[in-house]
Design a protein that fits this description.
By secondary structure, the protein is of the alpha+beta class. The chain has helices at about 10-20, 25-35, 40-55, 65-75, 95-100, 205-215; strands spanning about 110-115, 115-120, 130-135, 145, 150-155, 155-160, 165, 170-175, 180-185, 190-195, 200.
């Protein structure tokens, strides 16, 4: 799927995805973005090629007789999101659509207030993946970050102090970013957001309800 993507997955995150060291939640957003972004898909192929060359150059080591069977059993038990592309009428990229079991109509949304809704996706590990529904023209409370947050736009667009982000774009949030994302007036905004630490809200009410909403 060809998208006019202007904001991409950071190279360090793409490299970690290629190496298989990302947590499940971050793997999901990378797979989703790569499935609709030609530039990041090409960059990922480059990291995969480098990794393959490194493995080819390593000295062989003795392994136990059951090493292959044990490895295959681990692979069967853990099926991380895979970056793939296919035709779909859903706004969800193929990896996310597979993860949810369909499009937005299959999502079990929970209201946060002001028309904003979220759905936390089941993921292993400490990182959290959630879908966010932000009505057109509505702002998310201003906040900063305790760790890394990747936010991918699936429908509509939002703007903040950094730039405007539309479908396919990914914004990186870290400890240095404080922002107030506002959905464009013309269309409701739906995003996939992944965090490895709780957000830091500036206002009292968001902080009060933060433990309840697990943001």
């Amino acid at each position: 799927m060809m998208e006019n993507v202007k904001h991409h997955i950071p190279d360090t995150v793409l490299a970690a995805y290629s190496a298989g060291t990302l947590e499940e939640a971050f793997s999901l957003i990378v797979a989703s973005h790569v499935s609709i972004c030609d530039d990041c898909r090409a960059a990922l192929a480059g990291y995969d090629a480098v990794g393959g060359a490194v493995l080819d150059g390593m000295e062989s080591a003795e392994v136990s007789d059951d090493a292959l069977a044990a490895t295959m059993a681990l692979i069967d038990a853990i099926e991380p999101p895979v970056a793939k592309s296919r035709k779909s009428t859903s706004i969800f990229p193929a990896p996310l659509e597979d993860y949810v079991g369909g499009g937005p109509d299959k999502v079990r949304w929970k209201r946060l207030g002001g028309g904003v809704k979220q759905a936390i996706l089941p993921c292993s590990g400490a990182a959290t993946a959630r879908l966010l529904y932000i009505p057109a023209g509505v702002a998310v409370p201003d906040h900063s970050h305790n760790g890394m947050e990747l936010t991918m736009v699936l429908q509509g667009a939002f703007s903040d102090e950094i730039d405007r982000f539309s479908r396919g774009d990914v914004e990186l949030g870290d400890e240095d970013l404080t922002h107030t994302p506002v959905a464009d007036a013309g269309e409701d905004c739906i995003c996939l957001a992944v965090t490895d630490a709780p957000l830091v809200f500036k206002s009292f009410l968001p902080r009060l309800f933060q433990p309840l909403f697990k943001i």
